Amino acid sequence: MSAFTTDDLFKIMRECAGEEEAVDLSSAAADQEFALLGYDSLALMEAISRVERGYGITLPEETLGDALTPAAFVAAVNTAIADRMPAAGAA
Amino acid sequence: MTARRVVITGLGVIAPGGIGTKAFWERIVSGVSATRTITAFDPAPFRSRMAAECDFDGARHGLSARDTARLDRASQFALVAAREAIADSGVEIDAGNAHRTGVSLGSAVGCTLKLEEEYVARSDGGKQWLVDHAAGTPYLYDYFVPSSMAAEVAWEAGAEGPAALVSAGCTSGLDSLGHAVELIREGSADIMIAGGSDAPIAPITVACFDAIKATSPRNDTPDHASRPFDRTRSGFVLGEGAAVLVLEERESALRRGAQVYAEIAGFAARANAHHMTGLRPDGLEMAAAITGALDDARIDREAVGYVNAHGTATRQNDIHETAAIKHSLGEHAHRVPVSSIKAVIGHSLGAVGSIEAAASALVIRHGVIPPTAGLHEPDPQLDLDYVPLTARDQPTDTVLTVGSGFGGFQSAMVLTASEGRRP
Amino acid sequence: MTTAPMTAGPRTAASGTARAVVTGVGVLAPNGIGAEEYWSATLRGQSGIDRITRFDPSSYPSRLAGEITGFSVRDHVPSRLVPQTDRTTQFALAGSDWALADAGLSAESLPADERGVVTASASGGFEFGQRELGHLWGKDPKHVSAYMSFAWFYAVNSGQVSIRHDLRGPTGVLVTDQAGGLDAVAQARRRIRKGTPLMLTGGMDASLCPYGLAAQISAGILSESEDPTRAYLPFDAAANGHVPGEGGAILTLEDAGRARERGARVYGEIAGYAATFDPRPGSGRPSNLDGAIRGALTDAGLRPEDIAFVLADGAGEPEPDRVEAQALTAVFGPGGVPVTVPKTMTGRLYSGAAPLDLVTALFALRDGVVPPTVHVEETTGHDIDLVTGAPRPVTGDAALVLARGRGGFNSAMVVRGPSAP
Questions:
Q1: Which residues of B touch A46 (CB under 8 A)?
Q2: In this complex, is the C-beta atom of A50 within 8 Å of any C-beta atom belonging to chain C?
Q3: ipTM metric
Q4: N or C: which end of chain A has fewer CB within 10 A?
């Protein structure tokens, strides 16, 4: 089971960047590029920042360039959460 | 009636690595970067921990204790630069011409340094939403509405014509000059004290640019962090400073035997209507601003002898700008030297356009093109002559200087050699 | 071969003589959202000033404001833009939508490079700024929003409006405190005169957050009255400061010839403008407000007797009121022209005030009636003919709007009605 899901991401995206009226943020959107969902680089940076704070992780700076889809974003977050686990007690 | 034209008769510059026009010019020609690890506050919590800071002390530069206490650093810069420019030009502003003298000052972020300081003092370190209205300075309103900066300069100069702060983000310093030129041309003023000033090196500004990763994170090499047009460029380095120019209607300036650095022959500003922080790679709107400025100057693009670039060293800007120069200048783009002085003085937001206009005037005056410092590894995508590392002796009559800023603002200005006594 | 064809268009009318007419307006005022709602409230003398509700003002000595209530952001601003915008920008986005729609224009009406935008701002997206300063200092740098880099700076409204309506022509932003609204409209008029057919212009401010209020209190210019009918009394013997407000207006400005060709409804013309600056306080030299008034009249080619009425700046403090009344008397003679301050119903809107006054002036010329200065009873000491109590019928086709910014900025603008020659 993933610690961070597409639904979690979409909730954050809605809060920090709204949503396009014509776009349906359902699971089918997970593999579409953010740009097609109406989210630009600023929206992504705002989302990354919220996720980092909320989950106590630091995403690699390349995430913005690489995670062009919600699915890739979610995978990057889960990797970071997994990496964080051993040190979680100390944090 | 022949069209009214505008010449630069005085310069005042406050820049990192050089307070005063002479020190500034020597610094940018040397190509020695003034960027360093931030000393103004502890930058440890930030992603980008560097800036090009001015070693500026208002008292040492002639400001009264009252002024250094009450004025934001950006206002202090503007005042000191205005004094230098007015003294340099030799123009006398008195009861006879006060109403024909105006002020146009550019600033992107105004008095944010004081606004942040006062906020911290009044909010218990950021904890109280209901800030204490009585805790701080009585001058808070002057920081709240930064037209106070233009007012200070107007009072200093004795100007009683039209006055304004122009705040179009990072093109403010060019747009303020463009506005001043327009006021002289249309007859609303004969003399304009015009320029730009910003002092943004503060936690809130650094945090803003951190949040969008616009500034360079190359903290291990602070004096080689800004690399305009370089393959390894990684963002801009924040700067601060001011430049103030005395602009005069050409005929009256020549009549009084004024020294003349150059003529401001053309200006245009465009919006890209694209994105608050992003740029389209095609640079079409900046190209339109360049073409507009050349048209305004009635100058053929082939005449441009040097392009003073915006050259921030962000990935996007340098691509955008290179495309804009090529689109507007055509084949000539490959023959004309293009350089950015931001590797030396950093990016001082709303001041830098005026600082670069001052540099452009000095290029015409000295026949020397300042280098793009920090450019060691050419980017194969960027194929113009960026004058890397070393200044170049090259007499130049016509300079194009450009700016680009958040909000999608694109501006361009053309300066030309002018008759008149040499400074 | 690579000339930019896009710039060929706007150059043609560079004679500098094209006339700029107002063909659309978008209004957000404390006493009315939308131009007609604002205008009918203003003629009724209905004030939007009341106790501040956006936060608890009880710890502040000034607790009244002209707040815009009933503005539903979700209804007027795209969802995508809400998180990245301050209230002032949300007003500007809604106002620009309405100003274009009112002019009967859409995004396809003209090539993108033939439309531009110039706005004024006094204090930027200040509430957004206060919140992010709190995130930085109360938490840590990582809590600062990615939107902060532009949401609070003074250029934000021109930037966001240009993006929203694909305005790729000339642009600009002016900051001159309360005078800025006129300076921005004048700048847009210059662009029309130089050949850009369509400009959006005006100003909005909305700094009714605790830090914004504290800044205004610090200047000692806010009334401390608790009574909404006694707090802002320009030219009254009981003048005791002003009440801050939020909102403003966006205008659609068009080249008169182009507007006529497309059969646009024309509210009137921006016919004259001038700006001056006052000497440093204590210098002994007089104010230059009268110079701005005379300059605007000259620019419009009009004489003082051609002006049907004046919308005064109306600072609401004894000394600035005296200076303004004297300037009016110097140009128009004692009681020589009807003067009014509809701001008494909205509070002072900073850069939004003068664009709203331009709308008021154009509607007053259209309907032949000047709205009153509410709550003012006793103008003792000022030789001006202040319109108080009820609206007053007027004839004439030209009006003067004055706006003054803290520090000494004086701007004056003459508007003419649609039937003016």
A1: 211
A2: no
A3: 0.97
A4: N
CATH classification at residue B230: 3.40.47.10
Cβ distance C145 to A49 less than 8 Å, yes or no, reads yes
0.90 exceeded by pTM: yes
Contact A64 B278 (CB under 8 A): no
CATH 3.40.47.10 location in chain C: 19-261, 272-416
Chain C neighbors of A34, CB-CB under 8 A = none
* Entry field: residues in chain A: 91
Domains in chain B, number = 1
Give the integer Cα–Cα distance in Å for C223 and C101.
Answer: 38
For B123-206, strand residue ranges (E) read: 163-166, 191-198
C79 has a chain A CB within 8 A of its CB? yes
Instruction: Give the separation between CA C410 and CA C182, rounded to whole angstroms.
Output: 10
Domain span at A19: 6-85
Write down the H helix ranges in B61-219.
65-70, 73-89, 112-122, 140-144, 147-157, 172-186, 203-211
**CATH architecture observed for domain C19-261:** 3-Layer(aba) Sandwich (3.40)
The answer to whether the CB atoms of A45 and B276 lie below 8 A apart is no
Does the distance separating the beta carbons of A19 and C84 come in below 8 Å? no
Crossing angle (nearest 10°) for helices B73-89 and B147-157: 30
Q: Is residue A91 part of a domain?
A: no
Mutation for C interface: A25, A41, A50, A58, most C CBs within 10 A = A50
CATH code assigned at A50? 1.10.1200.10
Identify whether A90 is part of a domain.
Answer: no
Domain of B235, in residue numbers: 6-111+146-416
Each residue's pLDDT tens digit in chain C (421 positions)?
333 333 333 333 344 679 999 999 999 999 999 999 999 999 999 999 999 999 999 999 999 999 999 999 999 999 999 999 999 999 999 999 999 999 999 867 789 999 999 999 999 999 999 999 999 999 999 999 999 999 999 999 999 999 999 999 999 999 999 999 999 999 999 999 999 999 999 999 999 999 999 999 999 999 999 999 999 999 999 999 999 999 999 999 999 999 999 999 999 999 999 999 999 999 999 999 999 999 999 999 999 999 999 999 999 999 999 999 999 999 999 999 999 999 999 999 999 999 999 999 999 999 999 999 999 988 888 999 999 999 999 999 999 999 999 999 999 999 999 877 6
CATH class of the structural domain C272-416: alpha beta
Q: What is the three-state SS of B33-48?
A: CCEEECCCCCCCCCCC
The answer to whether position A39 is within a domain reads yes
A45 CA to chain B: closest CA distance, Å?
A: 6
Does the beta carbon of A23 lie under 8 angstroms from any beta carbon of chain B?
A: no
Between chains, do B213 and A61 touch, taking CB under 8 Å as contact? yes
